[in-house]
Amino acid sequence: MIKGGREAALGALSSLRKNGAWSQQTLDSVIKREGLDSREAALASAICYGVLQNMYLCDYYIKHFSSIGASKIESAVMDILRISAYQILKMDRIPIHAAVNEAGELTKKYSNARAVRFVNAVLRKLASNRDGMPPVKANDEAERLSILYSHPKWLVKEFINALGEDGCRRLLEKNNEPTPVTVQVNTLKTTAQEIERGLADAGIEYGKPAGTENCFELISPGKLDDIEAFKGGGMYVQDLAARLAIEALDPKPGDFVIDTCAAPGGKSFAAAIKMGNRGEILSCDIHEKKLRLIRDGADRLGIDIIKTMAADASAENAELIGTADAVIADVPCSGLGVIRKKPEIRYKDPKDIERLPEIQLAILKNAAKYVKPGGTLVYSTCTLLKRENEEVAERFLKENGGFALEAFTLPVENGDSGAMLTLWPHIHGTDGFFICKFRKA
């Protein structure tokens, strides 16, 4: 039986380490199963996400103050040290004695008495040095940034190559900041002004991204189902970056649009709203369960032009060839543009994403078959790696002579940068995202 937020965070992090489960899903499951009250649930979330965002830094100082090598520390004990080190180093409102005492109790439960003495010794050293921690020592700037912001060194090098050291540092900082819940206004049912009044009346703190009209960023909104505008279909959750991909696609009322990798449905919803709920959208996904979520979402939003179909995006459907006015291929990717929302993604093994460009190119080439002459095709990802973005788009162009790049303009900084645009969290305030637009001759 889990007794509180610290133990729930420990359980979620241990499960993540063992099984690779997504942090939010794992944490929600633990909180629900144990029936934690809102205070303990919030503590569990803060610790779990905080450790994921600062794991390398916590490990660095644990190793610095440990009397034994990290490889000899039992996994369960290391998890306990991590959640305790994070509380000591980053959570000023947590009394140090509470973090240390709870660590001892957890170590008794999940390890042994000898380990308790070791844990207490390490944490006492951490606590006594909290206001004067030794600077991080590293072989180069990439390694230093990797430790300070807890991103793997291979990824830091990728970002330095793309942004320079200062730009990389700002991106890493942004990835570790709290993220608001972004919602889009369903103009089929309401207006931005009505949504704004409703949020103000409900006492929900919000912001509006610069240059946008029908987008709100909600600060700690609680359960969305408790917000009247959400229940009534006046808004839906979607990051601005994904919405901008539909702005680039620019579907018109009456068009036939195919969304090849549609789940969870946000892009299909955005297209339907932009089309005034006139025309037809075919939303495809390989999993029927996810298609049900799209249909339920469309019903809530009052959208009736969306049809769903279970389909492998890389497998040709002869009946769809040359039929669509617009096609969007928002392909499976490494997800390294949404680290701020899913902090565990940063720890992916780079070997696990090596084959992605081939999969992405196959989906893009198949999606292109469905575009009618004169129609448009948008390729998008939620990653920031060139080999999944520009390089896939360039390979597609070389192998598909019937398509040409088409420039687009979006209401963000440098939003008129041609036919390919990378959205960066620290620059645009959105998810990390790539958008490329083609037109068929």
How would you characterize the overall build of this protein?
This protein is an alpha/beta fold and 441 residues long. It folds into four domains: 5-132, NusB-like (N-utilizing Substance Protein B Homolog, Chain A); 141-175, no CATH class; 181-237, 2-Layer Sandwich (Alpha-Beta Plaits); 240-440, Vaccinia Virus protein VP39 (Rossmann fold, 3-Layer(aba) Sandwich), CATH 3.40.50. Helices cover 47% and strands 15% of the residues. It contains 16 helices and twelve strands. The strands form two sheets. Strands 5, 6, 7, 8, 9, 10, 11 and 12 form an eight-stranded mixed β-sheet that branches. Strands 2-3-1-4 form a four-stranded antiparallel β-sheet. Helix 13 links the parallel strand 6 and strand 7. Helix 3 (38-65) runs antiparallel to helix 7 (141-149), helix 4 runs antiparallel to helix 5 (96-110) and helix 4 runs parallel beside helix 6 (113-128). It is globular and about 70 Å long. The chain starts with a helix and ends with a strand.
Please report the distance between the alpha carbons of the first and last residues: 64 Å
Q: What quaternary form is this? A: single chain
Biggest beta sheet summary: 8 strands, mixed
Report the sheet-strand fraction: 5-15%
